[in-house]
Amino acid sequence: MYDQERGSPVEIFLVEDNPGDVRLTEEALKESKVLNNLHVAMDGVEAMEYLKRQGKYSDAPHPDLILLDLNLPKKDGREVLEEIKADEDLRRIPVVVLTTSKAEEDILRMYDQHANCYITKPIDFDQFIEVVRSIENFWLSIVKLPPV
Amino acid sequence: MMDEPRGSAVEILLVEDNPGDVRLTQEALKESKVTNNLYIAGDGVEALAFLRKEGEYADMPHPDLILLDLNLPKKDGRELIEEIKSNEELKRIPVVVLTTSKAEEDIMQMYDRHANCYITKPIDFDQFIEVVRSIENFWLTIVKLPSD
């Protein structure tokens, strides 16, 4: 809207184990005015392999934005956030926590661990899509993302 | 929008030395659907005194959200964010950097220092108001603030 003079698509990395939420996120992002590619990891171990470009992810693009669920198989989103924000190469990537948890403990802990923002998932489908669109609009057309 | 409304007003601290930008921000926030109080600090030293509730700021509220300019008298916004994000009491408050600087170095350094997001100020008045409205809409109605 104001500033997307970037030549390449925005690479978004979604860490989410619920296929329904993955699909809704894909749908909402497909309608974006800003060209973007969505990459999905369904558990925390896969997410870290992707981010560190291990194994089959050796050619994976460096994400510009991460959408992170908290309750994930194998490695929890809380641990994933801690690893991202402690890693010199990854910590500047904005992380949007998108979770069903409304627990105050999670909200406080995630901000303390430098989540860039915390959003609770609405249960209603249309509201979920609205929230993803708000994230897309704010982070892709208002915010300056860190240069890769 | 998505959630039950909070009981009290959202307390916003704007750290900004340009009176024109202060006024435009006030105007944009006045129209918010979410009740909010805006406090202004005109330089970095005053901002820190406000946040630490020193002297005349003893009765000031703990802000829910900080809007931070970078080029400030007395103490720079770059220093200020470092102090906020390394202080146990303050680090969880989301900091939205709102600046004229488009320097890559600033963008990277602010994300590395855990700014929650980085936004460049449009020069055009109407676009500036639009940007403040986007910040207001995203942070006050979509995001769960740590104080919610």
Share in β-strands of chain B: 15-25%
Task: Kindly give the count of domains of chain B.
Answer: 1
CATH class of chain A: Alpha Beta
Helical amount of chain B: 25-40%
| Biggest sheet, spatial arrangement of strands of chain B | 2-1-3-4-5
Category from helices, strands and their pairing of chain B: alpha/beta
Structural class label of chain A: alpha/beta
Brief summary of the model shown:
Chain A is of the alpha/beta class and 148 residues long.
Q: Could you describe the 3D structure shown?
A:
The complex is a heterodimer of chains A (148) and B (148). Helices cover 39% and strands 17% of the residues of chain A. By secondary structure, chain A is of the alpha/beta class. Chain A has a five-stranded parallel beta sheet, sandwiched between helices. In chain A, helix 1 packs across helix 5. The two termini of chain A are 20 Å apart. Chain B has 148 residues and is an alpha/beta fold. Chain B has a single domain (10-142), classed as Rossmann fold (3-Layer(aba) Sandwich), CATH 3.40.50. Chain B contains five helices and five strands; from the N terminus they run E-H-E-H-E-H-E-H-E-H. Chain B has helices at 19-30, 44-51, 77-85, 104-112, 125-142, and strands at 10-15, 36-41, 65-68, 95-99, 117-120. Classes of the chains: A alpha/beta (148), B alpha/beta (148). The interface between A and B is medium-sized, with 31 and 31 residues.
